């Protein structure tokens, strides 16, 4: 069995193009990969302080788990 190490994906790997949505915790941005030009994604940016203040940490973690399993 071969293990493959993946580099960490950070905000620095993307160019932020424009916001496409806004919610109670932050914004959703359309971003473009700096590595592969033309490859675009939606990136959700949340304010940690708001999540903590609204006691919604578990909801955010559930959403993270769900979105990490979706292949679309």
Q: Gist?
A:
With 72 residues, the protein is an alpha+beta fold. The protein is 26% helix and 33% strand.
Count of DSSP-assigned helices: 2
Q: SSE order, as H and E?
A: EEEHH
Helix percent reads: 25-40%
Q: Round the mean pLDDT to the nearest integer and report it.
A: 89
SS-derived structural category = alpha+beta
What is the terminal-to-terminal distance? Answer: 27 Å
Shape: globular
Main beta sheet strand tally, sense and closure: 3 strands, antiparallel
Uncertain ranges: none
Tell me the strand percentage band.
25-35%
Strand order of the largest sheet: 1-2-3
Number of strands: 3
Radius of gyration: 15 Å
How would you characterize this protein structure?
It contains 2 helices and 3 strands, in the order E-E-E-H-H. With 72 residues, the chain is an alpha+beta fold. A hairpin with a 6-residue loop joins strand 2 and strand 3. The longest helix has 13 residues. The two termini are 27 Å apart.
Top keywords for this entry?
3 strands; 2 helices; 26% helix; alpha+beta; three-stranded antiparallel sheet; 72 residues
Which helices and strands occur, and which strands form pairs?
Layout: E1 14-22, E2 26-33, E3 40-46, H1 48-53, H2 57-69
Antiparallel strand pairs: 1-2, 2-3
